[in-house]
Amino acid sequence: MPEVAGEMPDFEAEGLLDGLEGDAREARIKLLEYLIVSGIPLKAIKAEAAADRLALIPADLVLGRKRRSMTPTEIAEDSGLSVDDFQRLIVALGFPKPEPDQRSFGRDDLAAARRLRMFQEAGIPTESVLALTRQVGSSAARIAAAHRDLAASEIVDPDADEFEAAITLRDAARELLPMSEQAVAYALRAHFIEQMRGDIIAAAEPGWLGVAKAREVSVCFADLVGFTRMGERSELEKIGSVTKLLESVAIEVSNPEVQLVKLIGDAAMLVSEDGAAMFDAALRFIEVAEEAGDELPALRVGVAHGNAIPQAGDWFGHPVNLASRITEAARPGSVLASAEAVEAGGDAFSYSGAGRHRFKGLDSAVGLFRVRRRSETISE
Q1: Is residue 82 within 8 Å of 76, Cβ to Cβ?
Q2: pLDDT, average across residues 335-354
Q3: How far is 250 from 236, CA to CA, in rounded Å?
Q4: What is d(CA 309, CA 315) in angstroms, rounded to the nearest whole number?
């Protein structure tokens, strides 16, 4: 803690010690003195106390609280971006729309405004950049929530007093945030390279990689319904147990004819050269999930069929991309498949039309079918 110097405010008269006694009162005083010495105005301290955020201020200082001294108007003047576009950028990231004279922004915000302006000058539509920003903001919020919960549940001692918790969170912000940022950057880079490689392979002419490498397969994605909302509720331990359960289910439904390719957070990917075996595994996904009851959220499954290329343990090509998109269109507790997958699956299953769906990246709508075992009763 910084050395206390000078006269301290009367914290009790300011209402900052209301309802506190004994050790809790002493811890609050110690934290308040720390904040005053750190240069936090009394008015800001009272506002944070009213919002039950006092223990977060030391971490906020590490993350640049004192450097947030610019308004949207000033950022607009410096970056060449309009005030309206900067406000829209902040909203796209998932934060409230700031007032033009709201002095709560800093260097990182200015850099973000300059990036948006550079995109505009390059001829990229602002709406396209903001649409991407919304996706990034949503993903970043979930990642931040997961790391916050890790700090709260694993680093902060449940028996710590308010001052001790505040200092622990400060140290976590100072030491763990850089590592977390590096981990996110690593994952983003790795996934970006992998997806770009997949797009190149999927679009390649046969002569690029050799026709012998392409194989006709059925591809299945099984996706947990509501997994994103779980992340937003920050149920970190539950998410960990659910993903482990998904992994065990994916292993259970795979067999010599059906290969478990990978698990991607809330989804599992399987591949098979036997269309009927793939449908059997896809339906088993739904059945095992239902048997698990409340332990596992509902699954939705999508299956596509076509030529794909195996590489380094993964698969690339049109059926991979299509199966992923079909999964997003499936109802919870159902298997949805393309016409090609139905043809490959044969007569061992029953099918019902699910209409035609348009997917991003495809020129024409795709006819889809719900897949059931022949013993199931069809009720639409």
Answers
A1: yes
A2: 94
A3: 21
A4: 6
What 3-state DSSP class applies to 187? helix
User: Do 292 and 247 reside in the same domain of the chain?
Assistant: yes
pTM for the model stands at 0.50
Helices (H), the chain: 22-37, 42-50, 57-62, 72-79, 83-92, 107-121, 126-150, 162-203, 206-209, 227-232, 236-253, 275-292, 318-329, 339-345
SS (H, E, C) 234-252: CCHHHHHHHHHHHHHHHHH
The tokens of 328 are what?
């997003």
pLDDT tens-place string over residues 109-136: 999 999 999 999 999 999 989 888 888 8
Looking at the structure, tell me whether residues 180 and 242 fall in a common domain.
no
Number of domains the chain contains: 2
Task: Assess if residue 132 is contained within a domain.
Answer: yes
Look up the CATH number of the domain holding residue 243.
3.30.70.1230
CA distance linking residue 185 with residue 268, whole number of Å: 23
Interval 261-280 mean pLDDT: 88
